[in-house]
Write a structure and sequence with these properties.
- By secondary structure, the protein is an all-alpha fold.
- It has one domain: Serine Threonine Protein Phosphatase 5, Tetratricopeptide repeat (Alpha Horseshoe).
- Helix content is 78%, strand content 0%.
């Protein structure tokens, strides 16, 4: 199912429906399929379309972390926290703050 969804979403990239939501959906599906590196690429595309997309920043951090790039994850969450605060997206701001704190201060 996930491979079919990914193929369907990829087929729409570059077309008239290409945009932040499509790339976010593709990134989410790729992350769910275990391809964190490809998910990060698509989430960066989503943010190129809409830099104020809080959910994309949050998921980008998770994808970077899953791809073994903790510094990139921290940077994504810091940027995402700033965007979420500016937009008044309190829930996303809180979640990314927690993710960032856990990354920077892991429990022993």
């Amino acid at each position: 199912m996930n491979a079919e969804l990914i193929a369907n979403l990829r087929s729409q990239c570059g077309g008239p429906r290409d945009g932040a939501l499509l790339r976010f959906s593709l990134g989410h599906a790729l992350l769910g399929a275990g391809d964190a590196a490809a998910a990060a690429v698509e989430l960066r595309h989503a943010l190129a379309f809409d830099p104020a997309y809080s959910a994309a920043w949050k998921l980008l951090g998770k994808a970077c972390l899953g791809a073994g790039q903790p510094q990139a994850a921290a940077e994504a969450w810091r940027d995402g926290i700033a965007v979420a605060a500016q937009r008044g997206d309190k829930q996303a701001e809180k979640e990314m703050t927690v993710f960032l704190r856990r990354l920077e201060n892991p429990k022993p």
